[in-house]
Amino acid sequence: MFLPNDVIQYAGPLRTIRVLWIDRPRALAYTFELGLAHSQPRTHPLATLVEDVQEGRARLLLHDPYAAPPPPPLLPQKYRDLQNKAWDIVSALQAQVPGLYQPRERAAMVARCAEEYGVSRPSVLRYLRRFWERGQTVDALLPDYGNSGARGKTRGVSAGVKRGRPRKSGDHPGLNTDADMRATFRAAVARYAATHPEFSRRAAYRQMLADYYRGHAPDAVPTFGQFNYWLDKDGAPPQRSAARRSASPAAAAVQSVMRL
């Protein structure tokens, strides 16, 4: 049986969903599609999700590519304060599950919460989506921390200003790598590593472009340099052992279904 926070990935069309909460008496799962800017919770019959995995239309990911990374040990207090404020709001709303997952009820709850805590409604919704997107943990509510110019730290982003060195081609300046793009990188890496016995960064990058950026304009596509940099930053997938490399795809599928 599925558990809250399980991540399920569909191959065609490619999409990834998180199980937010399970209503066992009604045999329903409330899910949230990941990597989608304006995603909303939805309901799915549990039996349908089980069949999708058992029949190969989807697979249960053993690694959560969207989970919030652990914070650094010396995180500035201002970020902790922002996290605590967001957690106060989100925990108050999560206490009202499953009503929170219904659009009309959620709108009323968000309005009341915004007034009570003195924040805007978009801010409340942003906290909720970040919480659902990044694994429903307190760490998911940390802001995207980092200061410009510090070794080993992520630089901040200014509107209209491209981070990093200019491209050698002299064409468009390129994209800044934001949290959503990093989540796409992690999802692409997890998908490639799970389906290939040997991991290739170039091949994983090409597969990501085919899966996520098909038809995009050149200035809306991340470079391999960006992909490679954040792969080092967020952690490359571990090398498979000889025993795992020899395992058949069918055996891997059976292992995934065994968790149900």
How would you portray this structure in words?
With 260 residues, the protein is α+β, with helices and mostly antiparallel strands. The protein has helices at 46-54, 77-94, 103-117, 121-133, 179-195, 201-212, 224-234, 242-246, 249-257; strands spanning 7-11, 14-23, 28-34, 42-45, 58-60. The protein folds into 3 domains: 7-60, SH3 type barrels; 77-141, no CATH class; 179-242, no CATH class. The protein contains 9 helices and 5 strands. It has a 5-stranded antiparallel β-sheet. The longest helix has 18 residues, at 77-94. It is globular, with a radius of gyration of 20 Å. The N and C termini lie close together (4 Å). Residues 146-173 and 239-260 have low confidence and may be disordered.
Concise summary:
With 260 residues, the protein is an alpha+beta fold.
Main features:
single chain; 260 residues; alpha+beta; SH3 type barrels; 3 domains; 5-stranded antiparallel sheet; 11% strand; disordered C terminus
Give the terminus-to-terminus CA distance.
4 Å
In total, how many beta strands?
Answer: 5
Shape: globular
Mean pLDDT: 79
Strand proportion, as a percent range, falls in 5-15%
Question: How many DSSP helices?
Answer: 9
Poorly predicted parts: 146-173, 239-260
Q: What's the quaternary structure here? A: single chain
Counting helices, strands and paired strands, the structural category is alpha+beta
**How do the SSEs run, as a string of H and E?**
EEEEHEHHHHHHHH
Biggest pleated-sheet summary = 5 strands, antiparallel
| Share of helix, binned | 40-55%
Radius of gyration: 20 Å
Number of domains: 3
For the largest beta sheet, what order do the strands appear in spatially? 4-3-2-1-5
